[in-house]
Every structure is written in structure tokens, then in C-alpha cells.
User: Fold Trk system potassium uptake protein TrkA from Alteromonas pelagimontana.
Amino acid sequence: MKIIILGAGQVGGTLAENLVGEKNEITVIDSDPNTLRVLQDRLDLQVVAGVGSHPDVLKKAGAEDADMLIAVTNSDESNMLACQVAYSLFKTPTKIARVRSEQYIIYQEQLYKQQNIPVDHIIAPEQLVTKAIKRLIDYPGALQVVEFAEGKASLVAVKAYYGGLLVGHALSALKEHMPNVETRVAAIYRRGRPIRPLGTTVIEADDEVFFIAATKHIRAVMSELQKLESSYKRIMIAGGGLIGAGLAKRLEHNHNVKLIEYSAERAQYLSAHLDKTIVFCGDASDPELLNEESIDRVDAFIAVTNDDEANIMSAMLAKRMGAQKAMVLIQRSAYVDLVQGGEIDIAFSPQQATISALLTHIRRGDIVNVYSLRRGAAEAIEAIAHGDENTSKVVGREIGDIKLPPGTTIGAVVRDEQVIIAHRDTVIEANDHVILFLVDKKYINDVEKLFQPSAFFFG
Assistant:
């Protein structure tokens, strides 16, 4: 595919890196020539310096025959205008814009149409991150929770702890422990390296285990790998920006929520617009304030300001003062590995959430969900099987007979309302939603080809 990326910041750069390795022709536009030079030194791509919404700049970037424009600058207006210009002048088939302002998102149904603002897909990072954090609150103890097939199935990452029922046992023991619950371990990471899960694989303490199950069985499976944590009731949020406010709104009716915001004006606004959340104006890294608000009784402290260092410091302080769990938002992806797993339990990156959403729209074949995992090294995808035995490489075949790329496993198949955990003899039918885990995302092209039916394929 010929793809133009507008914006060479964290998201644009990471996306370019993801796509260059997949044999795509990438051109990146940015107004800063130095940023572009650094990117070009590192990756095999074209760069154009200039204002991305200007017709001459888009033309120079190859908009006349581009398959897709992805606008991810820091300006919502620039992103939307670039999509408008690409559609009006160059008839670019697919246009994706990152949009942050709540005002533009509220009215997206009316705004983003070809006759109004021709954006095919909008990506709202703050909404994506808020949703991801909410899932972690719903499943205490999980490191990551991603949903497939409209929430019917989930892939969950957990850390196996000493005392977990399965630790020290082979994976085959899962069935004996839970005869009524079907689950599949899709991947195990031990000391940061992937291990292919077999029935004979013994789970060790500190293993990071990714498993797939029907969403209703998630807590039961988690209880096999670690002592099940009780539900979070008391939540403290540091930062009242779009993410902090959105999270408080989602949690306040079922949890006891306190929010700390540094700006007096913003704190006043939030106090008026949130129903049950108690809003404080102050510094989240002030020990006196944390002490006064009984930080030692807080189940989860969630730092989501725009400042990575402030998030890390306030979360570490909250944890030391007795908060049960500390979660932080990290803008710089490189920091995520450094901070997660020590005093900070979970670090999440808005970039990874944004990249996952973008990849969903970029993948070929009928791929309806993509989640970037393990800081972009691995991927979980949901693909719909089309065709029949003559035109498809997967329909009508047992999973054991499908030639999957190295390190790729099929974890589950969702058929109508039914979640079928994958076994060697499971037969894939037309219109099944197939959930796959790729330990190495460089094989994504091979997976895409598997799910593209062909008139010339006869088995």
C-alpha cells in the first residue's frame, strides 16, 4: 500500500516504523525538517517537509496515487483539513484523522461524512486510553485486557504469582482445575522472552501469561494464575484532563472516586460537571494532601497528567504511602518498560492504544480488530473468515491443518453468540471471527493472505 503519514511525532514515527517493515510505501510529512531527517536515517521511507494540509505538499508526497492518508499531527483542525484536501483534490480512497477535542467527537455521526468532512475513520486517543484503564479497573490484577467480537471474548495478560493454583503445574492441568471453563493460553513471556505454550509447559512464578477465554470466564481463569484481588472500590485520579475527567465519569457511579487537579479553574469546571467525584485542587505529589485524603485506603491510584515525570513520581509516592495499586500514563513509550513492574504496577502508553486503532484500519483482509502488545513486538488480531473450501485457505479446514506462520496461534473462534476455544480439530466456518496471537508481528502479511479469499484458490 502507498500510505502518507501526516505528522512525525511519537505516533506518526511509531506508526511509520510499524508499517515500513510490512512492505508498504511510506511517505511522512512534517513541518520540522530535523525530525524528518532523524526518521529517514532510521527507516526506509520518503519524507516531505511542509504544511501537510497544503495541496502542493500533499501532491509532492504522492497524494495523486496514494491509497491512504493518516493525519496524526497535534492539531485536530490540520488533520481534518488535510483529509478534506486529499478527498477534494486527489480522491484519496481512505482518510484517517486523529481527533482529540471532545466537541468534535460528540458530533462525529453528523460531522464525518463525505459531503461534510470526508474522514473515513477518526482515532480519539484519550477515549481509547480511558477505555483501556476502565477494563483494568474491572479486572483487578490484569496487566492488559483487550476485547474481541463486540466484547464476547477477551485476551488477558496476567503475571503468575507464587501461590497461584497453576504455578508449578503444566498447562494441561488447566482443564482438570476448571472442567467447566474453556480457555487457551496464547503466549507466555518468561524474563521478557516468548515461550511457545504446549500442554507440557510448566508455568513459573513471574511468567507473563496471555490467555483467551469468553469474557464471562475471565475472572475464573485469573484465579488459577494468581490470588484473585478484590474489586477496586476507592479510586484516586491525578490529573483532570480529557483522560482523567473521562475516567472519573465512567467510574463515579460504581466507585468512590477522588480527583486531584492542579489548575484551580479546571478543578472548578470538573466539580460542576462530574456527578459524584470529589475534586481537589492541588499537587498530586504533595504527601500532606495524599495523607489527608487517606491514600493508604485507596485501592488504585491512577496518574494521568500530561507530564510523565509528575505521573511517575506521584504514583511512586502514593504506592509508598499505602495505595494498593499504582497505574501511570506514559507518553514516551521508551519509559514504559523502565517503570512497570517495580513500585508502579501498570504503565500504559496512549501511543500503543492509538497505533492499535490505526492498524485495525490499515490491515488487509477483513481484519476488524488489532491490538499492539508487548510494546509493539506482538499483535492480537480478529479476522473474519470469508469464502468457502474452494476460495479460502481457512474455511472448512481443521485448525491443525492450517499453515500458520511461525509463532502464530489461533486462540478462539467466535461463531454468532458462541465462543469456541481453539483445538486442533476445530473446523473454521464462513463468517467465523478468528482470534489470533502473533508473537512476532513481522508475519502479519502472511496472516492477512490467509484470510483473503481468492477466486483462483482450490485447496
User: Anything to note?
Assistant: The chain is about 30% helix and 25% strand. The radius of gyration is 23 Å.
